[in-house]
Specification:
about 525 residues, alpha+beta, Dna Ligase, domain 1, D-amino Acid Aminotransferase, Chain A, domain 1, 5 domains, 8-stranded antiparallel β-sheet, 5-stranded parallel β-sheet
């Protein structure tokens, strides 16, 4: 089979891509493959039989087994699926095996094109300690901190105390091989140091198979700002500007926007240059994200580099006009980037919210249930990336994220208004979600003012979201249903926002059903 015309001069032509992933990111990649005229292959486990990602691909291969180790983390089973279908390239998506150098090497040894960076770059940036060293050598600013050498527990206590004293309190203990908030502990005073270190190391060992922890200064009132980079095998590297991802719960992102509402042009240029230098320091190829913490004083510090496509990549696509998955495939095929830094500019403002099956009024605990009604909003500048549809179920097998809702508008104020309206119009019934919470964020004065530091949720909802709701709300809702009031058109809004964990009708702009 011959590849599409644009691939004819590629050193490593790609005709069929197997996506070693599931859910919304698999569907997203299949969409770009279809536009490029490239075949696509899905893999699926028993719990994903009949899923949207299985049915979106041109072909699909069943992976037998009851655990992730048997299915989406089974390198040999995935390579076997590629051989069976004749796939000549593998895209790892995000999560699962996407940042495992052993997988990248295995794919290449099989003679299959790996759509991602080299195993060396994955290893170098995947270990936070080695990444920190590489950034210091590349003159990329890093957060003040110290490594903790491996040793006997009794020896580590003294070394830990010395390192903490040099770094200063408050500090952050972070897993070297970690991510997603795992193996991370805040320490505000010396008496808690040993306990939190033991907890961080234990959690890191359980989650990542490596209990190594390092000490880092805690930069409070900071912002999480990351820069998207693209590099090819011809020595070309560009950045596609920044995303601000400061609004988080449990160190996991909830709302992202691009560009940052506070970054000045000089800082933007310096941060972009630092991100490109960081990628070049490890001979990076493909799409990657360099994360920084932006301090109150305007200084920024390297946090980590994600050697894969990010969940929040759509907002970068909106403001840059670039399909990042297409560019990943082009770079993997050996083609040069089709643009230079001077060709890129910021176009408008984009916001993404992550819609989770969870209860924000109860500590963001995951929720399960049927997607009895799943009616996304529509209109200009609205995009939905999802791997579910009406009739599916929210289960605890995988991450509770159901969809990513993205809006694009000429400016930030217009984007906020568009997102608030889109969240209010999203009809999602049958399972508890965070849609009401997202509506309240979009309507919050602090968000409108751009006061989006990493403690945004804790500062604005110190007692937890939904605490303002009366204890009699469930009884009022039951009475309303009894007398048919729930079917009458109404607008219910208080000074604290439209959200309610009890009544989905409060978050809808229209009478439904």
């Amino acid at each position: 089979m011959l590849g599409p015309d644009w691939m004819k001069d590629a050193p490593h032509p790609i005709t069929k891509v197997l996506v070693a992933n599931r859910g919304e990111i698999a569907c997203r990649i299949f969409r770009s493959c279809a536009e490029l005229g490239i075949g696509s292959v899905a893999i699926y486990s028993e719990s994903d039989r009949g899923s949207l990602h299985q049915q979106t691909a041109d072909e699909s291969v069943f992976l037998p087994g009851d655990s992730l180790a048997d299915t989406y983390l089974n390198i040999e089973a995935i390579l076997s699926a590629a051989r069976e279908t004749g796939a000549d390239a593998i895209h790892p998506g995000y999560g699962f095996l996407s940042e495992r150098s052993a997988f990248a090497n295995a794919v290449k040894e099989e003679g299959i094109v790996w759509i991602g960076p080299s195993a060396h770059a994955i290893d170098e940036m995947g270990d936070k300690i080695s990444a920190r060293r590489a950034m210091i050598e590349a003159n990329v600013p890093v957060i003040p901190g110290e490594e903790l050498p491996l040793g006997e527990p009794e020896d580590m206590v003294d070394e830990l105390v010395r390192a903490a004293t040099r770094v200063g309190y408050p500090l952050l203990l972070k897993a070297s091989a970690g991510g997603g908030g795992k193996g991370m502990r805040v320490v505000r005073e010396p008496r808690n140091l040993q306990r939190e270190y033991a907890a961080a190391s234990r959690e890191a060992a359980t989650s990542f198979g490596d209990g190594t922890v390092y000490v880092e200064r805690l930069l409070e009132k900071s912002r999480h700002v990351e820069v998207q980079v693209l590099c090819d095998s011809h020595g070309n590297a560009v950045h596609l500007f920044e995303r601000e991802c400061s609004i988080q719960r449990r160190h996991q992102k909830v709302v992202e926007e691009a560009p940052s509402p506070v970054l000045e042009e000089i800082t933007r240029a310096r941060m972009g240059e630092a991100a490109v230098n960081a990628a070049s320091a490890v001979d990076y190829e493909g799409a990657g994200t360099v994360e920084f913490l932006l301090a109150e004083d305007g200084d920024f510090h390297f946090l980590e580099m994600n050697t894969r496509l990010q969940v929040e990549h759509p907002i970068t696509e909106c403001i840059s006009g670039t399909d990042l998955v297409v560019e990943q495939i082009r770079v993997a095929a050996g083609l040069p980037l089709p643009f230079s830094q001077d060709d890129l500019s910021i176009r408008g403002h984009a916001i993404e919210v992550r819609i989770y099956a969870e209860d924000p009024s109860n500590g963001f605990l995951p929720a399960i249930g049927p997607l009895a009604l799943f009616r996304p909003p529509s209109g200009p500048g609205i995009r939905l990336d999802t791997g579910v549809r009406e009739g599916d179920e929210a289960r605890i097998d995988f991450d509770p994220m159901l969809a990513k809702l993205i809006v694009h508008a000429p400016n930030r104020d217009a984007a906020i208004r568009r997102m608030k309206r889109a969240c209010e119009d999203f009809v999602l019934l049958g399972v508890t979600t965070n849609l009401g919470f997202l509506c309240d964020i979009m309507g919050h004065p602090a968000y409108h003012a751009g006061e989006t530091t990493t403690d945004f949720i804790d500062v604005n909802w110190p007692d937890g979201w939904g605490a303002h709701t009366s204890d009699v709300a469930p009884f009022i809702a039951a009475a309303a249903e009894q007398f048919g009031l729930a079917r009458k058109s109404a607008v219910i809004e208080s000074s604290e926002g439209r959200g309610s964990p009890y009544n989905p009708f409060q978050t809808l702009r229209r009478s439904f059903p």
